[in-house]
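hey can u check if this looks right to u? its 509 residues, i copy pasted from the old doc so theres a chance i mangled smth
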Amino acid sequence: MSNYKQIGLYWGERSILCVEILGHDNTRILSIPVEFNPDKILPPQLPAAANKAGEVLKNFLANNRIQADDFNIALPSKDIIFRTFVIPWMPANEIKGAVDFEAGKYIPFSLEELRYSYHVVQQTEESVKRLRIIFVAIRNDTLETYKNILGNAALNVKSIEPAQVALIRTLTMNNAIGESEVGAIVEQQNTSGKITIVHNRVPLFVREFQVRLPSGTPMNPAQAEANKQNQFVNEIRISLDYFARQDSALAANKIILISDTLNHSLVDQIRADLNVQDVLALSSKQLIGNKDAININYIAAFGAAVFGEVDLDLNINFSDAAKRSRGRKRKKTTMSFNLKAVLPALLISIGLVGGIVYYTQSELSKTRAQIAQLKTELGDKYVDMDTETIEMQNAKVIRKQKNYEEVRIESAIARFMQEIPPLLPDGAWLDEFRVSYKETGFIDKPVISINGYVYDEVKNEQFRLVYRLQKGLQESPVFSEAFENIDLLTTETQQMEGFDVTYFKLRCE
């Protein structure tokens, strides 16, 4: 395993929540007493306050021996602007201008005041193609204030992203939200809540709300709790209704309720009052695998800590590192592998390579004979032809000959088999390596299915191992040159000899 380590920080109003993933052993969580809210500080006082906050952060990390190659930051939704709108379909080179124009209608700031990014989704309604734009932004001055604090703390920052994206990453790792689902992620705290509606794991709508008891009305604890729960469900209804009016084509058919502790009473009321039967209740302890994680914002810190380990359609990074690395391929991490785990794959590879080499040499002989025959047959037809016809036939021969000559002499499948063992993390082994072929014109292209299992004592770590294998295949020069898509089709928790393991299916095509 690589010694590379990164840490996730969630920037709260009264503290910074830190998640450090300690390999296979456990997850370390800490609350750092950095109280910094730019909205409550006068502009002339911001530099001094940022310096103080940076020093507190730096000293706390040093005193607690928290070190990492990179730090990933999740910013609260109060600092992030989320907007979704639909524009007519247009060529890619025209989209930015249209986004800049449309964004001005929905945002009370000049675009020059913002650091922003956007995600484009093509959709078709009644045979009409349109583009859905997910616009995400932060004010430049707010972002610079955070960067100053991180700079004063001498942290190497790899990513700065919205907490909602980090939250979705954690849910994806835990298989809590499907790729094509329209779901509402509801975060419940004592007197507040937040709802994020997602489609294809991309946030489309974010709304925060407060839950307050009516003043002047005496209530016992049970009545007060019931009143808060009624308000909470009503706020969810308001959010779902508002989103439905904005976009009638999408309706949330699943609700994921996240809280410090599981609230089964609230789940039952949501099902009854909102008529949504697919309600999944999760606690922060479950999602990050730490019994002391009693603050749901640790979930976003955990998602930030695994930045780069899970691929999402929407990737937002407001850090300077994103600018420096744009257009450059991420450096490949060398990983050791378990010989017992990969032995079946190696045995399959040896047999497969031998068979493929024999088959390839046979096919090559046939191909060369076909080329010779083709040249002979076409050569006889040049007699009594005019110049234009000869040139056309000659061009046709050249094209066919080039295609034949491009048939690979060396088996590509053998190269793929040899590439896999170093990419398998410890605890991963293959169950099936299947090769089929898809007709793409002159030469059939291979489609490879890779199925297997992963095991780790920490259940959440199993999903990370699967995503690490997928990432390794995507970054492998051998696989990335041959396949446009390397997709994770499914993961499933299974029992094997009394142990929880994760079964996975990968497809390369």
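The chain has two domains: 6-77+141-215+222-325, 339-508.
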